[in-house]
Design a protein that fits this description.
93 residues
């Protein structure tokens, strides 16, 4: 969504409320695509293989925050693990 105007000049603009909804959902859920970018950068895979144009565009415009992505994904995992632990502890088998 961040790179749509860059990648497709004919794309219609999103409304403010849709943009906020997508951003909120993005920061709550885990980010496998962001980990793909991190892994590609760590292995320097871009030197040998092509990269996804949207991933390259996100990095180019400065909309990629690797520390926040990893932190929010870790927070999601902790919340889900705590929820599962509580459910297991309170369920009578």
């Amino acid at each position: 969504m961040a790179t749509l105007p860059t990648l497709d000049r004919g794309a219609t603009a999103f409304t403010g409320s849709l943009h906020r909804l997508v951003e909120t959902t993005y920061w709550i859920l885990p980010k496998p695509a962001d980990f793909n970018i991190l892994l590609q950068n760590a292995l320097h895979a871009g030197d040998h293989f092509g990269s996804v144009p949207a991933f390259a565009a996100v990095q180019k415009i400065g909309a990629f925050y690797p520390e926040l992505s990893a932190l929010s994904s870790l927070a999601f995992a902790i919340v889900m693990l705590a929820t599962a632990t509580r459910q297991l502890a309170t369920t009578d088998y």
